[in-house]
Structure formats: C-alpha cells, structure tokens
Amino acid sequence: MNKNKKSIIYIGIFLACILAYVFLAMMQPNKENKKETLNVVTSFNPVYVATLNIVEGVENVKVSNITSAVKGCPHEYQLSPKNMEDILSSDLFIINGLGMEAYLEDIAARSKDVKVIDASKNIHVEKEEAKHEEEHKEEHKHEHGVNPHVWLDIDKYILQVEEITKNLVETDSKNKDKYIKNKEIYISKLNELKKEMSGLDNLKNTSTVIFHNSSEYLLENLNIKVVDEVNIESESGVSANSLKNIIDKVKLNNIKYIITDPSYSTKVPDQVYAETGAIVCKIDSLVNANEDNIKDSYINTMKNNIEVLKKIK
Q: Residue 129: which residues within 8 A CB-CB, separation 6 or more?
C-alpha cells in the first residue's frame, strides 16, 4: 500500500512538472509568429507624407512625425524631450537633410545608434551664391550654405521618395514588394502632377522677387528668374532702405508678380504691392501638416500652388 502511494505521488509530481513546462512554453513568445513593429519617425511634413505613401497597407509599420504642430520652416526647430525620446527609440529616423535639421548633433551626442536616413542623399544642389544684397543682412539666411527646400521641385521630391523606399526595403526586406509597389504608384501620381505644370509655360523667362527661399527650386524648374530673395520670418519686416531697394528692383525689372509663403507675414509684400502693383502670390511650402488628408497633402497642395501661378497674366 505504501508502495502504491509512493508511485501515485511520483506520477503526480511528474505530471505537475509536465504541466508546468507546457505552461511556461506557452508563455514564451513564438519568435516565428511574433510580429514586431517597425518604428519610423520623420523630421517634418514633406518626408512624413512621402513615407506614409510608401508604407500604405504594410502591416506593423508605425510612422510618426515630430513636427506635426510646428508652423513655419522647421530649420531652427528645437527638439522637445518627447521628440528626443521618440527619435532614440526609433528604428529609422527619416530627415530632409541639406542642413534642414540643425539638431542632428544633439541626437548624435545622445546616441550613435540612431539610424538616420537622409532623403536628399542623392540630390545635388549648388551652394547659395552671394545673391543677397548687403541691405538684406538683417534677414535670416541658412547657415549651411545650401537651400534645403528641394521637395517643391517634383523631380527632386521623387528622388527623396526613391531614397526613403530604398532604406525601408533594406530595413524591412520581407515587405520589399509592397514598398516598391507603393513607391511606383506614388511616383506615377507625381509624374501626373508634373504634366499639370505644363500649363505654366507662359511664365517661362519672366522675373519675380521671392520673400522666402522655399519656392526657389520650383521657380527654377519653371525657368522663372528670381531677381531678389528676401527671407523674412518675423513681423518686424525690413528696414526702410531695404524696402526701397526691393521696390526699385520690382519697378526696374517690370515685375508683375512677387511670391511669398503663407506661413509668414505678408506685411512687406503688401507694401511692395501698394507701391508697384505687383500681385502677391502665396506658394505653400508644405511644411505645415494638413491633418484632414495628410497622405495626399503634397499632391493637393502642389495642385493649389499650380492654380495660384496659373492666375498670373
């Protein structure tokens, strides 16, 4: 009897061990079935929109943008603690490059492990020449020597889309086909947008003055000559002498339209219009997010920009 009891106890212990082993095995994550999320962070709206289109419909990819609430050009943006936390925990941090993100050294000082993707890696731009007159010294200029607003040139934006796709494929190769298909769909839409630009042929070889260099590459693509560039990012405007020089240039070159960015004050452009009759055209640089339809915001905003330019006679 004692022998039978011992046998039952041993069998019970053996069964309890098996059950414990099975339970622990069930609690362990199945590496084959585990679906890890690819955490992608972008620096500002244009590259955010491009990335959203490339990852459309791809499971387990999270895309967030650190400057969604920022108004105006983000080149002097200061990272918040939450921004830094999001970037340091990301799998990919996608930037515009060309000096737009002045805070990159701050990130590098915190961690060398952040994988930064420069969307403009394969875009060649000339260094900004000394095209600002002496009287414009009080206005802002980019310190890095180049104009980083390449995305308003559709051809350059397509190169950014290509570079972002390449890095997503390298990082998440199992979804390669989806990324490439989405890229091709988006680029086909961008090429259709380029066709709409043909309606602006009447502006070729005309001249203008711009009040923010965000539109420079777009105008260059349209063969529009920029006579002067005045970067104004505050309500203070320009000095009386600077204003006079701008007005004189508009009159001398018989300029019919001047271009500004709706993110900034129109105080100075309006003063120029009052003195010269040159129409003030607002070309949106797309740096401010349109949360209603963010994925299509690049194409929709560029179509609006085209319509603004079409109204110039």
A: none
As to burial, measured by CB atoms within 10 angstroms (0-12 exposed, 13-18 middle, 19+ buried), residue 230 is buried
* pLDDT over 80 at 69, yes or no: no
Please choose, from the candidates 208, 242, 210, the residue with its C-alpha nearest in 3D space to the C-alpha of residue 225.
Answer: 208
Report the interhelical angle of 267-276 vs 240-252 (nearest 10°). Answer: 50
Q: What CA–CA distance (Å, rounded) separates 26 from 24?
A: 5
Does pTM top 0.85 for this prediction? Answer: no
Q: What is the torsion angle, in degrees rounded to the nearest 10, for the CA atoms of residue 220, residue 311, residue 295 and residue 96? A: 20
Taking alpha carbons only, the member of 98, 133, 161, 118 closest to residue 238 is 133
Spell out where the chain has E strands: 38-42, 61-65, 92-95, 116-118, 207-210, 225-229, 257-260, 279-282
Please give the average per-residue pLDDT across 153-167, as a whole number: 98
Sheet of strand 207-210: strand arrangement: 225-229, 207-210, 257-260, 279-282
pLDDT digits (tens, 9 = 90+) for 28-68: 554 444 458 999 999 999 999 999 999 999 999 999 999 87
Mean pLDDT in residue range 160-166: 98
